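Progress report, Aim 2. The chain analyzed during this reporting quarter is listed below.
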Amino acid sequence: MAHADRELVTAIRIELAAIDPSRPCDREAEALGLGSPAAASEPAVARLAVRLGMPAPPMARRRVAAAGGGFDWDARPEHCRMAYLRGLFLAAGSLSIAGPRTHLEFVVDAGDAPSLARRLGDSGLPASWRLRRGRGVVTWKSADTVVLFLRRAGLRGSLLEFEARRVQRAVRSDLNRVVNAESANLERAVAAAGRQLAAIEVLEADGRLATQPYTVRLVAEGRKETPEATLSELAERLGVGRSAVQRALERIEWQALHDEPPRRRLRRPSATGSRPLA
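Predicted structure tokens for the chain:
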């Protein structure tokens, strides 16, 4: 992640850890999510554990959580579940917002991953799970799901910044896609115009352009005068249909490579037995 994104993730975790649940049941649920005793990797999480009446946690690497230990998910109301998940995220969760992708995961005991994923799905937060180096990893890869969880977990100020950056990344991605598409179209148009001008020169040099139908000669003259014009622009300028311009230019390119004009494709006989047109 970029430095600014890492700072935002840190701000999100600090804000979540600063939430002081008012309900005793929420405080208990969040403490169960943190684990007992909690091993904290951040001062903000260590202070949270102390506020919740847990033993002062030693500073350590983020641990693997035993999801659900002592927490009756099915019997608890939604606010208790969100408090529990908030504690679980602070104890054993990670958030990545690198580039256009958002990724949040919980690292839990291998046997707890399927049940945690099921519980999250039941709460409208569908998640996937897998085993990684003997640990269970429950993952959200949908930015919308991550935002929904953070909002329900109580995030406010940092969530606005998170949403703003999501919009900026989406706009930047769409803009880059449009610019790349326009650049590719322009490159193809320039290459096609170059081929067409070269073909016109060939037909003019050997006198064959003068023998072409009026529309072909008209289009050839228009292409020479406005080599940068698109087919639609050329058609509008000449007062003919776009398909007529395209066919004329295709004919010019074909004849520059061959000695004879292209033969018209024969139509299949109809069911009534009519003869094909030459």
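The chain has two domains: 3-155, 180-257. Residues 180-257 form one domain. These observations will guide the mutagenesis work planned for the next reporting period.
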